[in-house]
Amino acid sequence: MCLGVPMQVKSIDNEMARCEIDGVQRDASLMMIDGVKVGDYVLIHAGFAIERIDEDEAQRTLDALRSALDLGLVPE
Predict the structure, then answer these.
(1) Which of 7, 32, 62, 70 could form a disulfide with 21 if both were Cys (CB 3.0 to 4.6 A apart)?
(2) Which sequence spans correspond to the domains of the chain?
(3) Distances (CA, A) of 49 to 36, 61, 68, 74
(4) What is residue 4's DSSP assignment?
(5) Quick one: fold of 5-70?
(6) Cα 34–22–61 angle (5° rounding)?
(7) Helices (H) and strands (E) in the chain, counts
(8) Sequence-separated (6 or more) residues with CB below 8 Å from residue 75
(9) Helices (H), the chain
(10) Global pTM?
């Protein structure tokens, strides 16, 4: 299963963003989307930011992923 995980951009250095969610930080390439700035939410998949999303959508998606984890529908 492939998932895009919503994360908030905390810093940007050239084409790389440092992103965070729930205290977990990851680096992600911004080469696939333009105009991302610090504070934006992006979907991260396989080390790439693949789409910019608004904060409400990020929270709804995270809530759904957390529910799926709680139900054992998604492996940890």
Answers:
(1) 7
(2) 5-70
(3) 9, 15, 22, 21
(4) P
(5) SH3 type barrels. (2.30.30)
(6) 60
(7) 1, 5
(8) none
(9) 55-70
(10) 0.86
